[in-house]
Amino acid sequence: MKTLKAGNYTFGVRSNHLFMSRSSAEDTEIPATVELAEINGSETFIHANHDTFQLVIQENGVRSVRIGAEITIYVSPSCFFVYDEAGALVASPSRRAAEDRLR
To answer: Does pTM surpass 0.85?
Structure first.
């Protein structure tokens, strides 16, 4: 992220790179409100809103989360996909950074 020039960007992240607990001091915090929590086998998909956009967190294990609860979502900046104003990909997570985050 440090190499990005000043400008307007759109950021994307995969649902399995969003977490309900911090794993690093570098993690970005996103406050959100839970809209739905669905258990699917050994995973929980938590649908949440932050201002005007929706996020889905794919958590390992069964999580009990109350609808309407205020939560904090954590994501490592190394997991961001970055797009310029024209929609072209200008930065993406390194495979190693993403794998390290999932450990």
So the answer is: no
Structural contact between residues 4 and 73, judged by C-beta atoms closer than 8 angstroms: no
CATH 2.60.40.420 assigned to 10-102: no
pLDDT in tens, 45-70: 999 999 988 999 999 999 889 999 99
Dist CA 60 CA 68 (whole Å):
21
Fill in the amino acid letter for 96.
R
- 11: which residues sit within 8 A by CB, 6+ positions away? 80, 81, 82, 83
Q: Residues 77, 28: contact at Cβ < 8 Å?
A: yes
At CA 49, angle to CA 88 and CA 78, rounded to 5? 45
Asked if 15 contacts 81 with a C-beta cutoff of 8 angstroms, the reply is no
* Domain ranges within the chain, ordered by starting residue: 10-102
Q: How far is CA 100 from the centre of its chain?
A: 15
